[in-house]
Amino acid sequence: MKKFRALILNKKNESQSISYKLISENQLMEGDTLVRINYSTINYKDALAITNKRPIIKKWPMIPGVDLAGVIKRSSNKNFQKGDKVILNGYGVGESHYGGFSQIAKVNSKWLTKLPEFLTPFEAMAIGSAGLTAMLSIMQIQKHLKPSDGKILVTGATGGVGSISVMILSKLGYDVIAGSGKKEDVFLSNLGAKEIVTRDYFNHNDKLLNHQEWVGVIDVVGSKTLANIISRTYYGGIVVVCGLAEGVDLPTNMMPFIIRAITLKGVESIHTSQRLKQNAWNSLSKVIDKKKLKNLTTKIKLTEVESYSKKLLNSKIKGRIVIDLMRD
Q1: What separation, in Å, do the N-terminal and C-terminal C-alpha atoms of the chain show?
Q2: DSSP assignment string, 236-254
C-alpha cells in the first residue's frame, strides 16, 4: 500500500509534539469515502491547535486541518463518484477526526460539499472556512440590509474572514468600513474598503449609546470592541458575530437592543447544514473576485505549517494561507 505524507500532532503529559510522517490508509480513522487532498488551509483555529495555545484537539494523536479540498478516490455513497471534486469544512475534522493536513483523508460522505463548477480546489481553500463564514455572515447582512441602507463595518479586516468579507461586500455594492489593528491602507483599499479605522478607535466606550455610525457589522473580535461597536450601530441595524479574537466576554447593556432595535446574530460554519453550506459555496463561486483572491493568498508546503501558524497568531499574515498537498 502506497504511503502518503501527513502532519501529526501528539501529546504526552502537557507536552505537544509535531511530526511529519509517511503513513498508510489503514492508519486513518473510519469513513465511507477516501479523498485525495489537493489543498488545505490554515485557519485561526488550526493555528491555535498547532501552537497549543488553546485545547482545540479532542483526540490524540491527531492530523489537524479543519478544511480540505480534493478528489474522491472511492466512496460507498452513491451520491459521490470517483473523480468528483469536493470540499470539507468543519464537523470536528482536524479536532476529533483526522483532518486536512494530509495527502489522503478518509471521511464521512455526509460531511462533503461538492465543489462548485466555477471554483478550483486551490480557490476553494483560498476561501476556506474563513471565506465560508464570511459568506454566511454576508447572507445575514443581505437578509436585513440593501447597499443603499448605509455603511457596513468589518473588523479584523486583514484576516481571513475579514478580508473576504470586505472583498465580497464591496463587490455587492455596499460601502465598507474596514477595521484593523494593522496599518494596511493600500491592502484594504484594494479589497474595496471605502474607509479604514484602526483598533484604537474601539478602545473607549463610556456611553450606553454612542453616536450612530454603521447600519451593519461583521465582527470577528468580540469583547470590549464588540460592545463599543454595538453602541455605535444605527437603529434597526444588524451585528453579525463570528469570532472572539479579543475575548469571549461581552460587557454591553440592553439599551442598543431595546432603544435602537439592533439585532445581534451569531454565525458559525462547523455544524451549518449541508444545504446552507452548498448554497453559500455556490454564491461564493459567483461573487468572489478570483484575481483579488489570488493576490491575498500565500501558498506554502506542508512542512511550513508550524512556522506560518505562529505568524498567523502574531498578526504577521495578511489574507489567506493555502497548503499545497500535491507536492511530496
Answers
A1: 17
A2: EEEEEE---SS-S-----S
Cβ of 138: how many Cβ atoms within 10 Å?
26
Give the CATH number of domain 4-115+296-324: 3.90.180.10
Bridge partners for 324 per DSSP: 39, 301
Report which of 70, 79, 55 is spatially closest to residue 106, judged by C-alpha positions.
70
With beta carbons less than 8 A apart as the criterion, state whether 53 and 83 touch.
no
Tell me what the mean pLDDT of segment 80-106 comes to: 97
User: How many residues in the chain?
Assistant: 328
Domain ranges, ordered by start, for the chain: 4-115+296-324, 130-266
Name the CATH superfamily for 130-266. Answer: NAD(P)-binding Rossmann-like Domain (3.40.50.720)
CA distance 116 to 126: 14
Give the residue among 49, 113, 42, 39 at the shortest CA–CA distance from 304. Answer: 42
Instruction: Tell me, rounded to whole angstroms, the distance of Cα 94 from its chain centroid.
Output: 14
Show Cβ contacts of residue 328 under 8 Å, excluding neighbours closer than 6 positions: 5
Residue tagged 486583514 (cell numbers): 158
134 sits in the region (left: phi over 0; alpha: psi -120 to 50; else beta) called: alpha
One DSSP character per residue, 9-77 reads: EEEETTEEEEEEEEE-GGGSPP-SEEEEEEEEE--HHHHHHHHTSS----SSSB---SEEEEEEEEES-
Model pLDDT for residues 205-263, shown as the tens digit of each residue: 678 899 999 999 999 999 999 999 999 999 999 999 999 988 999 999 999 999 999 99
State pTM to two decimals.
Answer: 0.92
**pLDDT higher than threshold 70 for residue 328:** no
